[in-house]
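User: Can you recover a sequence for this backbone? Please restate the input before giving your answer.

Assistant: Of course. Working from this structure:
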């Protein structure tokens, strides 16, 4: 079994790895939230622009204004599709970082469990040594009392 200092070193390294993984996970979750917010903004803008266009269309618009509207809506749709891809990529990255964090945490917990077991074993051995010393002391006392 590994020595106490080796286990403590492994636990510290695993803790650092877990902390780093948690920071990366936090950054990817923020990227997902930012991507969702931007997508919501773009779709809201598209919907609002469409409503304004319908209102102005009832008042009558020129063919040039209609072509401009169509071109702008195509650009908005392209931007929305691009943002949806950014969101999907951010979500995949976030899921990967979550798995990395979970694996790092499992490793840290495994080392901690090993450390706990080693400490329990050391206490048990110490208790046995103490009991043996007490038994020997009692046996010597009994021997000299005869």
């Amino acid at each position: 079994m590994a020595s106490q200092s080796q286990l403590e070193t492994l636990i510290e390294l695993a803790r650092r790895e877990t902390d780093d993984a948690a920071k990366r996970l936090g950054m990817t979750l923020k990227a997902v939230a930012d991507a969702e917010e931007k997508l919501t903004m773009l779709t809201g803008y598209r919907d609002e622009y469409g409503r304004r266009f319908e209102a102005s269309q009832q008042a009558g618009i020129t063919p040039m204004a209609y072509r401009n509207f169509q071109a702008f809506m195509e650009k908005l749709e392209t931007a929305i599709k691009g943002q949806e891809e950014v969101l999907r990529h951010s979500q995949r990255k976030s899921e990967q970082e979550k798995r990395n964090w979970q694996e790092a945490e499992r490793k840290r917990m495994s080392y901690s469990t090993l450390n706990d077991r080693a400490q329990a074993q050391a206490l048990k051995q110490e208790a046995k040594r103490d009991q043996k010393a007490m038994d020997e002391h009692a046996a010597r006392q009994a021997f000299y009392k005869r």
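That completes the design. Helices lie at 4-59, 63-145.
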